[in-house]
Known about the structure:
The complex is a heterodimer.
Chain A: E1 4-10, E2 13-22, H1 27-39, E3 44-55, H2 57-72, E4 76-80, H3 84-92, E5 101-102, H4 105-111
Parallel strand pairs in A: 2-3, 3-4, 4-5
Antiparallel strand pairs in A: 1-2
Helix pairs in contact in A: 1-2
Chain B: E1 3-8, H1 13-29, H2 36-56, E2 63-68, E3 72-78, H3 94-97, H4 104-119, E4 122-127, E5 134-141
Helix pairs in contact in B: 1-2, 2-4
Amino acid sequence: MELSLATRTVAEHTVLEVGGEVDVYTAPRLRERLIELVDAGARDVVVDLERVEFLDSTGLGVLVGALKRLRTAQGTFGLVCAKEPLLKIFRITALDQVFPIFPTVEAATERTGSGPAS
Amino acid sequence: MATVRLSFSPAPVHVRTARLVGVAVARRAGVDEGLLDEVRLAIGEACTRAVALHRQYGLADLVTVEMSDSGSYTVRVIDHAPIEASIGLTKLPPDELAAESLTEDALTTGVGFALLAGFVDDLQVRPVEDGPGTEVRMVWPVTRR
């Protein structure tokens, strides 16, 4: 499935819902969207990966780039992911120690606003 | 033994095709359904790496993916970039992953290798036998025929 991107606001957080396949071909669109959001002033960003069917190293690189960008801008960045295959990818790459990962959007918007992304 | 060989121009759009073919052949070969997500990811990572190297060196040569099912399911992804480009394939420690000094390309390369090493028990990265290039060889067990 092609990449899909949709933005909504939840409790003063910008939630980017990502769906489909995030790979070397589609990741540049995700990168552009995240840069647009930060440039437009979003500071508390949550990326919802629940509808992602495939995620590779290029997509992970884009997410780390967004985390760094928001850290520089004194913002927060969190991921929503409860799918075991995706969680395994974060564990294998040790990126589970880099990203705040939440099981639901509600949990992410409650907790990532409490301090700068780390 | 059955072999399927796919060659493609080094463009990101074709990596998905390689993944789809690789998983279809794996399923046909009898790789356990529970391993197919890992097969898909690993083939994608190996092809992404090959495409990135060809683009980095301005090579129009085709990237080749060869799949065979002789007792096990073996996938070879072959690039034609200078061999020294493969040096430095290392897994990054967690404290370096979000370091400001690490470029996105370097991070992607390190993470890609971590995924290959993490998902493929039988993984070899070696020079191709003739000419420049590297072969990433991945083997998965076949449970039914």
